[in-house]
Amino acid sequence: MSRRAVVIGAGIAGMLAAAALSPVVDHVVVLDRDELPDGPEHRTGVPQGRHAHLLMHGGLEAMEKLVPQAGMRAYLLAAGARQISLSSGMLALTPAGWFRRWRHDEYLTITCSRALLDWAVRTAVLRNTNVTVHRAQATGLLGSARQVLGVRLSPGAGGEFAPGLLADHGLRLTGDGREAELDADFVVDASGRGTRVLRWLEALGIHDVREDNVDSGLVNATRVYRVPQGAQNWPLTLIQADPYTGRPGRSGMIVPIENDQWMVSLGGTRGSEPPKDPDDFLGYALALPSPLVGRLIADATPLTPVFTSHSTSNSRRYLEKARVWPDRFVALGDAAATFNPLYGQGMSVAALGAQSLAEAVRQTDVAAPGLARRVQRTLAGSVEAAWSVAVSTDVLYPGVEGGSPTLAHRLTAGYSQRLTKAAAGSYAAASALWDVTCLRTGPTRLMRPDAVLSALMGPALPPLSGPPLTADERAFLARLGQGVPTAAR
């Protein structure tokens, strides 16, 4: 008898979940309400799509395992993505000062537009698995609190159900033909920030899922520029917000992406939001704790208008703690938890969640009682790691909604401040921070003896007086007529 899995959402989380299920079922049907583009183009269903994204080391490793036939790293690089080492290829001004650039080419991160990443992951999965994508809107789950048996659908914005769904998958039309039911042996909700998973679970009789929301009011403003001649190898540049001053946070970053472009994203928490006006955008960049980002883009050619987004809150649904959980159903990616995108961990958490699903279904039948609950609890580990990083910082900003600093937050913040200060002049301390940021390990990494000793002893090297530029980078700034401005140090 043919076995089918259904995945709701064709974003990165959904396509990776489909890849996870592909080896153990006869077919995986991915449903998405959007008409998906044929190439690396933006779509409305990704609210953060026009802003900077970093694919961290842990997430990339998970992708490599989920689609081994594709060779995801090589595939992304061939599509135009960039590979950057956080330890040697990044300029970062932290609240403790400029980080050094080390000779170690570790903590490799992929940078590109979200449109390219979505398209590359989707095409890699579709070319190497038994997965198909259809346009439809999931409106509910079939089954009970004990077991999910499929999904309820409407045709979505397309107005009609795709012929492939009707002909190939036995879609049952209901009512006046405007709704339908699709049976499945396993269902994954990967529908993103707009998930209705709590409403769907309540319809099944599950009412005890707690949800937390922490919102610093962050607004992202992003514009894409052509890379200036001579700056093709300019490093990832990051001016971090300072959560310890009691004032709103302001940040900026230059992310090298495909097609010789820079994606420049500015961020400001409640009370210090970046503007959408192009002239004010530049002024905001120049007024950051270092004007380096602003000076670099002052004479660069803009290729897009300024796009802004308010979809930046942290939201966590404690699905793994529900008293009853239905078999054959898992929610992952943003459907389980969303994070402030400033910390760059959402995609990697989704990939790690899909990897947990893949490992589980390789060992146990997808319909086995208790399997879905075990998966939901397992993927909560990577969710907790990212949640801890994001929320323990966001609650420190003024005007935050949904949370306030607890004693635990303040102790965490104090330790983080010391470790960051040490990391400005100690590779051991910096590697501990990067291990957690890149999701190579969990937050307990910060309490290992080497990290604690580094925090206690402080930086081994004196603080830098300015950004750690190479000779070629200094020459580029000099050609701009800017030199290395005192204010940028």
TrEMBL record:
The FAD-binding domain covers: 5-358
Signal sequence annotation: 1-20
A single GO molecular function, which one?
FAD binding
User: Would you say which domain of life the source belongs to?
Assistant: Bacteria
Is the Coiled coil keyword given for this protein?
Answer: no
Which key words are in the record? Signal
Q: Which SUPFAM superfamilies match?
A: FAD/NAD(P)-binding domain
Q: What InterPro entries is this protein classified in? A: FAD-bd, FAD/NAD-bd_sf
Question: Is the Methyltransferase keyword given for this protein?
Answer: no
Concerning PANTHER family, the annotation shows: THIAMINE THIAZOLE SYNTHASE
Q: What is this protein called?
A: Pyridine nucleotide-disulfide oxidoreductase
Taxonomically, what lineage is the organism?
Bacteria, Bacillati, Actinomycetota, Actinomycetes, Kitasatosporales
